[in-house]
Amino acid sequence: MKPGFSAMTVSALTLGFAFLYIPILLLMIFSFNESRLVTVWGGFSFKWYGELFRNRLLLESIWVTLKIALTSATLALVLGTLAAITLVRFVRFRGRTLFSGMIFAPLVMPEVITGLSLLLLFVAVDWDRGFSTVVVAHTTFTTAYVAVVVQSRLLTFDEMLEEAAMDLGATPLRTFFVITLPVIAPALVSGWLLAFTLSLDDLVIASFTTGPGATTLPMRIYSQVRLGITPEINAISTILIAVVALGVITASLIQKRQFARRGGHG
Amino acid sequence: MMDAKPADVRGPQEPWRDPSAVPLIEIRDVVKTFGNFVAVDDVWLDIYPREFFALLGPSGCGKTTLLRMLAGFETPTSGSIRIDGVDMSAVPPYRRPVNMMFQSYALFPHMTVEQNISFGLKQEGMGRSEIADRVAAMLGLVELTDFARRKPHQLSGGQKQRVALARALVKRPKVLLLDEPLGALDRRLREQTQFELVNIQESLGITFIIVTHDQDEAMTVSTRIAIMDRGRTVQVGTPGEIYEYPNSLYVSQFIGEVNIFESRVVEAGKDHVTVFSPEADTTIFADRGLDAVPGQEVYAAIRPEKMSIAKTPPEDAGHNCISGTVFDIGYLGSISVYHVRLANGTKVKVTTANRHRFVERPITWDDPVWVWWPPAASVILLA
Question: b/e string for B145-173 if b means 16 or more Cβ within 10 A?
């Protein structure tokens, strides 16, 4: 029995969503504020978006953030997929439980711990902190997310498809690229998008592992906010929200469509 | 039903009776174990070109494992498999001259019907125009020309089954392996498809090996059947041989209905055997020889449809004749099943074809009846 829309459920829903989204909505609205004062509405304007594109430091950090997100998401995709295949296909090997626990630990590990431990590692091996160390750090924690997404797809993958391909003359390697990869491609795309957006808005781990010349956007925003909130920050935050939302929605749509299709023909 | 079988029509081509015939597939002492479980236990089989060979048995009898060893997905623990004279032990699945039709069809979901069928030919590196011709011919054969550009999830169960068949046949393998190919279809479609399979097999001249747990299916399509039980082949023969002359209690009960009477040998000869069954309270005479000594315990097996039933005794009532009372009648439309209880309590099943209307049936509940059968209908099985 499904409950209908009573006054109770409607108000609970409204309050809940208001709690979650009003701060974000306010931020977005004030990004179109003509006034320099953050709390006083001075009329609608795209002024701060224009300012944004004249702020060299912000633009630089956007470029750095995108490069880091693209590189780490791609590395995480490869590593996460390999981990997922190992977990699903090689059911019985020594230390499997330990391996799967270690793959998924970064999901629940506090970011501060991850960041700090990576920093200690980089210091210990005397690795100059900068672009490459942030990429490594982001790859480390987004790999876990990719592994989860790809593993859940592989669990429902019909291994008979691979046998059928080999039976028809395809070598195991060719079977992997022509059958397995295309069939699980939607999971790979959504895993990559997830890793990409996670890297894009990470502040804590990046702060620990970055160095000169590799200031990411969230870090730039954070440091500017400490000097006082400007509507410019609201503008760049609004763009960031839009990009992340787009990524997450695309990822979930791809998974949903794939699920519906598989459900459709049993 | 029995006399309309295509297997009997193909009578003259029986290479397994010809000592000079060369088998296409030689399975020699093959054993397959998974841990402590023996899935296939010392199987020895010869399968000849153009045969439609059935591996029949209950689930878990090892028939699918045997098929997967032929395809190369499993390696025998010991023993050898030769296909067309070549030892297959070092040959991977993608280099074997066999193709398989999977129980779940295993169609590639991201490819159209056409791409699914052409997949195998592309792996061979065949030219584009030749692939197109072969695929078009295959689509015509399975009547799916109009569906060439559909994806598998847009097809019905029967259509998917035909795509799977076309995909496995298009490479013209020496052997086609079919794993429960009709299991997912409904009864009517399954019966129709069985005959289509036989027609396709005869027109292409490819050797088919089918795995099934459905005895009707095995009887309908195959030239020979291997009955399997717990990893072993218990009997190999034509559908007719297996039905008429089962070599064990297991086979007689697995294929069709049968009345089993515990008996003791009275006299055994080269061309006849006489037993007495306290259970049936009669002497049973069979017109085939048996290597047994008087007093030995045996089973007499008689098929219900080979028995006659009447309210009056037959003229030569002596052996192979029992009497009792009808206690139940099952009306199945084309046939009726009479359940007869003998004086000592033994229950016997007799079936008769309903050539007349049911309402005109002369025998009814509680009628005293006589049941008898010819010597050729008695099969004596060693215990």
Answer: eebbeebbeebeeebbbbbbbbbbbbbeb
